[in-house]
Amino acid sequence: MKKNDSRIYDPAVECMDRDELHRIQLERLKETVKLVYDKVPMYRERMDAKGVKPEDIQTLEDLSKLPFTNKSDLRDQFPFGLLAADKSEIVRIQGSSGTTGKPIVSGYTENDVEVWTEMVARALAAAGGGKDDIVQVTYGYGLFTGGLGAHQGATRIGAMTVPMSSGNTQRQLMMMHDLGATMLCCTPSYAIFLGESLKELGYDLSEFQLKSGCFGAEPWTEEMRDKLEELFDINAYNIYGLTEIAGPGVSYECPAKDGMHICEDHVIAEIIDPETGEPLPYGTRGELVFTTITKTGMPMIRYRTHDICVLTEEPCSCGRTHVRMGRITGRTDDMLIIRGVNVFPSQIESALLRVSGVAPHYMLIVDRVNSTDTLEVQVELTDEMFSDKVADLERVRDEIKEQIKSVVGISATVKLVPPKSIQRSEGKAKRTIDKRGLTE
Ligand code: AMP
Ligand code: ZN
Hints:
The chain is an alpha/beta fold. The chain is 31% helix and 26% strand. Residues 96, 145, 216-219, 238-243, 305, 307, 328, 337, 342 line the site of adenosine monophosphate.
């Protein structure tokens, strides 16, 4: 592993005394609650229903009086219902895949882009990034926050930013080699694929300058970190984020590589019991909930991420004081992340329902082959279809593939299975078998 030249981007904020941090958080929380109460009908209605007024927020503990926000709220209010700013103040839209084929979108004011840029700049600096670096951005550019998020952060730290976007492995490696990229930003699974391809294509690792990488957007493991650090001879850092809150950089690892510091001057993190919604103390595993306290475009109050993790307030050896979150060890809903794309079984179901001759019984088998996620969709045929000609079956299979691609946005292998062969469950149907070993 190469020597670590990690820096702290903004020591005054990142290493701030916690009492001072709490004071700032409360001030900003009050402003945000007032803003959404005044400007966003959904928040005002929900707060009124709970009998909470902005003035009732007098301590950070009062946060628990506020209603939760869910992904379904973003869907219901699509596209602009949750904006707290005038549409003319919005300078960017980003999005992520939702449950209906329509993306979940978030609107950013200039201030919000700035906040987000700062978050990623902190993450890159923690991974050793600075003005002498060449940062290869291999996250996808587009509605997905990965590409543009990393791009903005890399530009902010003054690095030479290489906007490769995702895909085209040979070209990625050629550029990384020829430009002498020192940092890589992409999903951990694609990074492993790149590392393995590097060897296969006959490159000599000693001709590369890569020293570190910020990897995120999907769950990964310590074993994957070891593999990445070995494949590229780098320091591999975890970076976390979600579109609803900002994008990548909401939290990021420092050289201690022991949890990701959450940008607590911009968001307040809570862990709740996913069943009861009750806040849980630090150190307890539960569902992560975020409240944004500096966003002005589409602020989020108690947004339920459905990501499961643990928070710790223990001091960190790096000197940063912001709380750390552990790796995401699961989800409280059935969302899968396949090749970086959020996939809900219900989306696959709606794709299947568009094809005649198939029964609404299916099973998703997710695996990781050669570091790439694979999705096999097993679909039951109806009795009539089952007795049909092979040519007809092929047509059905192709149609299903096409529908999945158009609804979910990713390719899947489709396996047609005989009627009644998929196990029926008596309770909640189990629709997924995830063999990647990423969750608990
Ligand atoms: P999106 O808004 O499409 O970028 O998806 C956000 C979701 O991606 C989060 O809620 C997490 O489930 C997942 N995610 C992002 N970064 C990480 C990470 N470093 N580790 C595990 N999951 C992640
Ligand atoms: Zn630290």
